[in-house]
Structures are given as structure tokens and as C-alpha cells.
Here is the input.
Amino acid sequence: MISEEFRMTSADKKYITFILLFFISTLFSFGVLAVNNNVTVETSYALNDNQLKIVEGAKKCLADKFSYDLSMAYHVLTYKDGINTEKKIFPGGDLSPEIGVCTDVTVRALRYGLDLDLQKEINTDAANHWKDYPMKRWSAKKPDSNIDHRRVPNQQVWFEKYWTNVTSDEFMPGDVIIWDMNEDGWSDHIGILSDNKLNSRYKVIHNFPDPGYVAEEDVINEWKISGVYRIK
Here is the structure.
């Protein structure tokens, strides 16, 4: 026989049932899936076609996994669609698809996804609005279609002018993120936000000396953010 102090009333049972159902429904509503210690969280954002295409282009760079060009050399861009033509190409010029730096992720991703050519865009904009770009930093006297679009500060000027500047609580996949790693007032690294999350933050697809190739990593807060930009 159950003593009176431990006897559950009908109201008690209904309350416990309610709590259990609420707990289960809450788990499903968050849609959290843990796989190999990586947490993917379902979110309510709705990406437009251009944002989806940018993410797709960035993931193409991720799949290509091109190496970081530690030489940081000046390259005459003789490659077109992965083929070395052995002559300078503009627009649509590239260096060997096996190598690149951080800016080559944005250049290639936007070409892959949107057919948007930063080589052409920045070269044309710099020719028409020379003073908008920090060319004095490199003692440049005229546009150079081999290198101008591959410099982080120049890309930032272009994104600042033609895309939307967003704040940290509005980050979305497909956003271009730029950092001032040395905190010296000059931006020096760039990447694209992925649609995958880790630790409740979007991962970034970028090319960095460590690990030395295009990777998808949780680095949003790794360095000082100097700008985040979204296609209009």
C-alpha cells in the first residue's frame, strides 16, 4: 500500500506529463545535431539566391583546397578557367588554381557562384576613382590588373562601396568578413561565412598560412573584425 504522502493525484500526473512533453518538444524545436563533435544548429534565416550562390562558390574553393602561397609573390595572371594560356588575361585572369592567398577565395568564390569578376570590378573602379583606394601604400601610380584585386584593403574599399555593411548580430552565410589581425589600422585577412555552425557561430571559409590551404573554421572572433559585407 502506498502511503498518503507519496500518493500521486490526477493533477500531479497531468503536471508531470506536461513537463515531459514540454521538454521533448523543446529538444526537437532547437534541431541540434551533433556529429563528430561538430554542432550544426538549424536556424530560421532565409538566404536569397545570391547569398546561396556565394556560399556555393566558397564551398567550391573549399573542395578545391588550394594551398596558401607562402611566397606572397607577384603573379602575372595567365590562367583562365584553370588553364595556363601563357599570356596575361584580363578580365577573368587567375594564377595557378593550385595556389592562392586569402583574397583568392573571394575572387574565385564570386566568379564560381555569381559570375562576378573582382579583377574587372576593382580595376575599373580604381581607374575611375583612384583616390578611393589606398594605392599609395604600395607606391602604385596606375591600376594593375594582376594584383590590385588581390589586396585585402582594395577588396574592402570595393565591398564598402557596393555591398551592405552589416553588424555582428546580423551575420549570415555568404557574408564577406574582413579582419585587422595586427590591429594596426590595415585590414589583412578576408573570408566568407559558411552555412555551417560550430559553437553557435558560423564557420568561415578562408585561406590562411595555418593550416596552409582553404579550410572551414570557427574563426569569426579569432582576430579584430574590421568589416562584414553582404551583397545587396
User: Anything to note?
Assistant: The radius of gyration is 24 Å. Residues 1-8, 17-43 have pLDDT under 50 and may be disordered. The chain has one domain: 48-230. The longest helix spans residues 10-30.
